[in-house]
Amino acid sequence: MSIIPPSVLRVLNNLRASTTLEAAQRKLEPQAGTRTPKKYLRAGRTVNASSVRALWRQIVSAKPAAATAQHQLADDETLETAEHYAGNIENMIGTVKLPVGVIGPLRINGMNANGDFIVPLATTEAALVASYHRGANLITAAGGASVAMVQEGVLRTPGFRFRSLLESGLFVDWVTREVEALQAAAEATTKHGKLIALEPVIDNDIVFLLCRYTTGDAAGQNMVTIATDALCRHIGAHCPIRALNWYIEANFSGDKKASYLGVITGRGRKVSASVMLPGALVSKHLHATIDDMLAYASMANLGSLLSGQLGAQAHYANGLAAFYIATGQDAACVAESAVGFTRMERRGDDLFVSVTLPNILVGSVGGGTRLPSQSAALDIFGLKGSGHGAALAEVAATVCLCGELSIVGAIAAGHFTRAHESLARHR
Amino acid sequence: MSIIPPSVLRVLNNLRASTTLEAAQRKLEPQAGTRTPKKYLRAGRTVNASSVRALWRQIVSAKPAAATAQHQLADDETLETAEHYAGNIENMIGTVKLPVGVIGPLRINGMNANGDFIVPLATTEAALVASYHRGANLITAAGGASVAMVQEGVLRTPGFRFRSLLESGLFVDWVTREVEALQAAAEATTKHGKLIALEPVIDNDIVFLLCRYTTGDAAGQNMVTIATDALCRHIGAHCPIRALNWYIEANFSGDKKASYLGVITGRGRKVSASVMLPGALVSKHLHATIDDMLAYASMANLGSLLSGQLGAQAHYANGLAAFYIATGQDAACVAESAVGFTRMERRGDDLFVSVTLPNILVGSVGGGTRLPSQSAALDIFGLKGSGHGAALAEVAATVCLCGELSIVGAIAAGHFTRAHESLARHR
Amino acid sequence: MSIIPPSVLRVLNNLRASTTLEAAQRKLEPQAGTRTPKKYLRAGRTVNASSVRALWRQIVSAKPAAATAQHQLADDETLETAEHYAGNIENMIGTVKLPVGVIGPLRINGMNANGDFIVPLATTEAALVASYHRGANLITAAGGASVAMVQEGVLRTPGFRFRSLLESGLFVDWVTREVEALQAAAEATTKHGKLIALEPVIDNDIVFLLCRYTTGDAAGQNMVTIATDALCRHIGAHCPIRALNWYIEANFSGDKKASYLGVITGRGRKVSASVMLPGALVSKHLHATIDDMLAYASMANLGSLLSGQLGAQAHYANGLAAFYIATGQDAACVAESAVGFTRMERRGDDLFVSVTLPNILVGSVGGGTRLPSQSAALDIFGLKGSGHGAALAEVAATVCLCGELSIVGAIAAGHFTRAHESLARHR
Amino acid sequence: MSIIPPSVLRVLNNLRASTTLEAAQRKLEPQAGTRTPKKYLRAGRTVNASSVRALWRQIVSAKPAAATAQHQLADDETLETAEHYAGNIENMIGTVKLPVGVIGPLRINGMNANGDFIVPLATTEAALVASYHRGANLITAAGGASVAMVQEGVLRTPGFRFRSLLESGLFVDWVTREVEALQAAAEATTKHGKLIALEPVIDNDIVFLLCRYTTGDAAGQNMVTIATDALCRHIGAHCPIRALNWYIEANFSGDKKASYLGVITGRGRKVSASVMLPGALVSKHLHATIDDMLAYASMANLGSLLSGQLGAQAHYANGLAAFYIATGQDAACVAESAVGFTRMERRGDDLFVSVTLPNILVGSVGGGTRLPSQSAALDIFGLKGSGHGAALAEVAATVCLCGELSIVGAIAAGHFTRAHESLARHR
């Protein structure tokens, strides 16, 4: 009985069988100037059909085998509309096409999103759309989900290093006295952003300044960066306590990262959605009883806790990634958005199910929302442009509720594997 | 001085100004049968041009305004190739187009990926590709990054509930005696998957059985589900200790979720990539000295810790999401993959930088890798099809290394805001 | 090569060798009424010499072998002073004696604690006091540590369950309008406690109400419970939105538990302490150079991150537990207090070291501070009674700083094992 | 409406009112040589009555007011037995006396602890013993708790830094080939310790080597340090891949720290304890129905999750700290032990309750177990000396079960505040 974990031995055995020390050394060492000349790809600031073609010439000259790829990525329609992408990409060589499926109509009784919505989801994973569609149908059959955005506030968290703890304290003191001017400096950069909280965190000679903003209808990551930069420059120009150095973001905000700060205080829009499901509807749509659902939910909750997840939920990331990609949101924000809490509880003969997501980062303006196909996807459910940021967040949360219902039902009923086997069968 | 947090007051004030209690009540309550008739969207199992058109008729009839969206999503090329997407989507209505930019050539001195790679990234966020490209150029100028996959093992974690702690113990005892048969049952379902570890976790009358697999060149999420289902059915058929209930996944594996289990034991492929950068190259490419980089890195590391992130890194999610989407990976896995550890250390006159990602979930086969444009994207750097799973993971990690270098340089040099302002200027 | 972890196999092998299934079953099943009659120990409310003796009679009658223990626990001095313990224990049978060692004089340049302190530490672990003493001497030799309490606020977090998300919102709305009355209700119960923040957290139909108090010179756990109870009763009496149920503590505050809430927002007193150490002093006292210290600190920081600790520090728990026990604090609070952040950085020829603890729970009044020997321990350094709560927290943090310096030095210099071997040699 | 959090403003206002900048500066700056001469306390290696008295002379000369404290700490009995403490403390000046209460008889149906136990708990917190006693009586009335140690393995985690990732890999390779010799080296230092797993974790050029031991009947922290030191020295003497530096503990093991590593893989002894409680007994003992208990448990579980606790439980730390202190265990280990999972579930007319603690660090030998009063405390329930380590861990877990039942009952029934008010009334 070896005391080395079997998975370690497995990796080592494979390596020993497939390589030698000398070969490994050769592979891993720096290769300065010994291979292809270092010609980096170069593209001007302009993005248009001709810039795309120019890049392809460079690619194909370096990698002739890549030639066959060109027309799939740089198809005619993409070339014709290339200029539309200019503010969203650099070194553009074309577009990748992700299939979009729809779910619904999903009845949402929301403070901001209210009505029956057909929601587009972009994914390459079989069974995902079918599963969320199943959840949507169940919710709609039950009269819809109650949903509200209960909080909002995108963070940017500059960090300032001083000479001592005393200076940290004096700096915080100055900030609290200067708060109107700081607010003015930040808000001067934006029509829609509002600085709603300034929360200092001291670690001895370092001060993190949590700047929390509402961002109108935009997701707002750039908006808060620019506003905070102005705020920091105001500090630099006026604060008598001079920082040794400072940074626009001290890696504290949880931007693009799951964090307990996000779980506890929220980042972006916090939305809670719930539905009350009669037992008969649950059985009809999910082939599982309320007791089946609860028995699984209780074990799943334990699984979350024991494996050190942030919150407890089944697969928000699936619905969020598909919704974010379809509607021109920042897909990287799935990393921070896909945390939260799914609850399932018996209420008499009904099943109460809720999801609460503290960090939804979506916008109905800005980002990729005005790109041709993303904009079209937003048109399907009509939440494009000004006035729809909060509604979009409510739809995102309700989509997650669909997914939680469906997957919990599938696992509780023992259908999970079968769905994946059968729907991916065409591959 | 109110003792209520200002952000709470802000939300409440907005609500009070914009709605009444009666209006809110009306909005939030279930709306069974009172609005549009509940006609769910229906699509057959077939995906082709005609199924796409049929769904659009349903959408437009429910939502006439959606008509304008049709040709952007269901363009001619998409309609012609619709059948290719059949195994990857349900209820398909078209494709969404994400712009793809390239970075590189990125010199990778990897155990599996070895050479100069032009890497496609799909994103709608301005500055992302430019930033990663900058990092790639720096790495290549320094002779490339050393990279190795050091571990692999996708988890599926069924859960079993028994009558007592004693039965849990007897079950674990039985499993350890029956391990060859369980391995055989699981591996009979797959040509490439291997069950490499079976790790039981007992919580009184519940046993979580961590099943860890290598998955060949596939990301392997479906593969491990099917194999584990077979393993569980073998248990059901043969184990004398009968579970009260069991589930194929007890929400323990970290599938689509950031978790400490993933951070500590890894899920998917664990890859470490590093580069040694002469100070002069750092200054030339990033306009920051090594000391500048380290001063920021130290504060950023503290920011990670104080805000409760898993690991410490700047923005793996950006690179991973863009790489996953471009190459047909599961974008939802960004939620679990975007954790890990970036280190920056001075080594004489050089800067050592490494990234280690314990949970990379990529495949060179399966998932969306065979779709037209995704397959083309893989062709650009030549890691498509059998034999390239590990290499793909090494590229993914090196892309993250590019991004870490570039963003740390930008923040350290004070250029972060400016890059975003200027590159998003066309919007 | 088995795929079962070796540690699991080990446990099973031991069990198989030492027991049978039948024996295990017999051991684990409920034994109602089959053994000794169920006579629970009974002690009246009074605590004095005679109540102690009465309990011993019951114990010895149930367990004759326990008789020899009586005089060690219920020694003459304990019996004579038994009444002093009446407000701190029930079912009292005596006292346990923990050895107390002293460190110092420790020079503390604190906002509240200022001077040279001899600090008593109670522990049964060899080498602990010697190690902290070494750190104290180094700090004093360098002119002392700069220390300040930068924040305070003990939490109690009642939870309220309503009928719907809407009611949750209405409740929060009511709370924000009624804040003065709530504050008055809470503060009417206490001379020293002040309610300084009311932070609602909504999870659909549940509202957690984070009540944050300053607690004067007491640790304040009971004070905030009683004040919050009054606050809740005011809500019950006056709030038109009736909770379905509510609880004085919804397990959200982090009371007696490490939590990210505590790490991020603080619970109790947050103190930061630092010292600037000339390299020569480091070498003289710790037998390690600054570079040695930093090399280890960097790996230790990585270890913290990779193993999922809250914050990054070496062993605050050792110093805190010993200090809490010696001075009559609540030793269980070590669970929440022993988190935070140790930083070590080079500053020219000096080593900067800081510790920041967000959750120190100590009081110079209340709890066990007025018990005979605990009160005496406080007398040694003169921070007993009113006016010393913040100072006590600053001493606690500085003690942790002593411990961090010493252990990092010992491990960096390779002396860690030796110290433990040699100092525990008398056992 | 200020955007600064009210608790920050409160602290600043207090500071502004109570100090000036100049005063603060004076307080915080280093005070080298300006105050009392730096005479550190000096005590020889010997611990006896005369060494204790010698230290008191130094203390009183530095701090005359401390004189009154002497006889409380250095009482006659302590002076007479001072030599007994020699292996457990340095700079000894006396003993602190903590009151000890008893609970029980607690019926434990354990694999290792089996019978009716009277358990001593040392605490200065009113209501704690009464509360645990209540839980114990309920468990005993129900026929006792089923308990088993299901896993054990104390960790020590040395870290090794190499020149490159390749060297890390070669080192791991060497370790796996040399495993018998390493095991022999480690186990040669101890009669009872066994090295049961060696788990390498690579972060590029650093390898953490998780060494997992069973430690016989000792808690084993020193045992594993000494064994691992020998293991590392064997590596140093024989491994051809030379580490740039290495450390006996790379802050990865979770020693004295709550960590997800501990939650997931366990550190020390993992014990699960449960009880099945008829509803009538619950009502009689706790004045709450099963439904009351479950309603609270569900909210408390959510509170754990939303506030970022490790696991979900109410107050293990209270029971563990009191049990550890009474029985001579290391109280600092409460920081790592007080995590785990409490479950409450309805089973027909019964309430099932379980606790699972993955990191119990207790020993029936070693540490403080042989000190006079601690040894006496162990005598009360008869688990002293060889052969009782696992049993002791089972008792510790069952004590936690008592506490969970009682506090959940108290909060569910609304009695929590009252108990604390009334039992602390004598102060």
- Count the strands of chain A? 11
Largest interface: C-D, 187 and 188 residues
Q: Please compute the radius of gyration of chain A using only Cα atoms.
A: 25 Å
Query: Which stretches of chain A are low in confidence, meaning pLDDT under 50 for 5 or more residues running?
Result: none
Task: Specify the helix fraction band of chain A.
Answer: 40-55%
The number of helical elements of chain A comes to 17
Largest sheet of chain A: 11 strands, mixed
Order of helices and strands of chain A: HHHHHEEHEEHHEEHEHEHHEHHEEHHH
Oligomeric assembly: homotetramer
Query: How would you classify the helix and strand content of chain A by structural class?
Result: alpha+beta
> Which band does the percent of strand residues of chain A land in?
15-25%
Q: What would you call the shape of chain A?
A: globular
**Overall pLDDT score of chain A:** 94
Would you mind describing this structure in some detail?
The structure is a homotetramer of 427-residue chains. By secondary structure, the first copy, chain A, is an alpha+beta fold. Chain A has helices at 6-18, 21-28, 49-62, 70-73, 76-81, 128-141, 165-177, 179-187, 221-238, 260-265, 279-286, 290-306, 316-326, 334-337, 372-381, 389-413, 416-423, and strands at residues 92-110, 114-122, 145-156, 159-161, 194-203, 206-214, 245-247, 268-278, 311-312, 340-347, 350-360. In chain A, strands 1, 2, 3, 4, 5, 6, 7, 8, 9, 10 and 11 form an eleven-stranded mixed β-sheet that branches. In chain A, a hairpin with a 2-residue loop joins strand 10 and strand 11. At the A-B interface, helix 1, helix 2, helix 3, helix 4 and strand 1 of A face helix 1, helix 2, helix 3, helix 4 and strand 1 of B. Strand 1 (92-110) of chain C pairs antiparallel with strand 1 of chain D, so a sheet runs across the interface.
